[in-house]
Design brief:
The complex is a heterodimer of chains A (116) and B (115). Chain A is built from no helices and 12 strands. Chain A has 116 residues and is mainly beta. In chain A, strands 2, 5, 6, 10, 11 and 12 form a 6-stranded mixed sheet that branches. In chain A, strands 3-9-8-7 form a 4-stranded antiparallel sheet, with no helix packed on it. Chain A has a two-stranded antiparallel ribbon with strand order 1-4. Chain A is globular. The relative contact order of chain A is 0.33. With 115 residues, chain B is mainly β. Chain B is 0% helix and 52% strand. Chain B contains no helices and 11 strands. In chain B, a hairpin with a 5-residue loop joins β7 and β8. Chain B is globular. Classes of the chains: A mainly beta (116), B mainly beta (115).
């Protein structure tokens, strides 16, 4: 069965510090997709990134970067030079081709607080 | 703004009652998904509809039902409500399955409080 583990429940950093949010997943599918979503205090879920299981290339988008390692079943998310606006709950999610590429299984989330 | 509209934003009701949550997907999106976010269960997939037909079911209770109408909006019906049904209910939509990138666009959610 699929599973997504975000072991860090809460993280606090001081503004401008770098922070890495961990995500470990389990799946028996060979084709799967990994996602990160952000949930700011306003409550909506904002899509950040999607990764296919066959694409281990890391990605950088501005201050955000993602490290996908199949060998350790991890898909970690790093924010560099954190800002107060980054304060939110971040969810890692997994979907499997066999159960529907758009049916996401979410981790429990990591609450990030950036202190000014 | 994701383009997905959910109403109502907040709803307070009593145990045993029935409520209907409404969702309008992004223009052109054929798939609609319902998710429940509660403190004890986290974010859980409930059900998916594609172009009016049920496509996939997750952890949806028998007291809950959903449908997608010809104009593609969807409704989630929750009946015989219990205290534990209090949660934030999200609707999400995505493009045509054949062209889907797996990206879901979420609405702002409907917060249900059962007293």
């Amino acid at each position: 069965a699929q599973k997504v583990t975000q072991a860090q429940t809460e993280i606090s950093v001081v503004e401008k510090e770098d922070v890495t949010l961990d995500c470990v997943y389990e799946t028996r599918d060979t084709t799967y997709y990994l996602f990160w979503y952000k949930q700011p205090p306003s409550g909506e879920l904002v899509f950040l990134i999607r990764r296919n299981s066959f694409d281990e290339q890391n990605e950088i988008s501005g201050r955000y970067s993602w490290n996908f390692q199949k060998s350790t079943s991890s898909f970690n998310f790093t924010i560099t030079a954190s800002q107060v606006v980054d304060s939110a709950v971040y969810f890692c999610a997994l979907s499997e081709a066999s159960t529907g590429a758009n049916n996401l299984f979410f981790g429990t989330g990591t609450r990030l607080t950036v202190i000014p | 703004d994701s383009g997905v509209t959910q109403t109502p934003k907040h709803l307070i009701t009593a145990t045993g009652q029935r409520v209907t949550l409404r969702c309008s997907p992004r223009s052109g999106d054929l798939s609609v998904y319902w998710y429940q976010q509660s403190l004890d269960q986290g974010l859980q997939f409930l059900i998916q509809y594609y172009n009016g037909e049920e496509r996939a079911k997750g952890n949806i209770l028998e007291r809950f039902s959903a449908q997608q109408f010809p104009d593609l909006h969807s409704e989630l019906n929750l009946s015989s409500l219990e205290l534990g049904d209090s949660a934030l209910y999200f609707c999400a939509s995505s493009a045509n399955l054949a062209r889907s990138t797996g990206e879901l666009f979420f609405g702002e959610g409907s917060r249900l409080t059962v007293l």
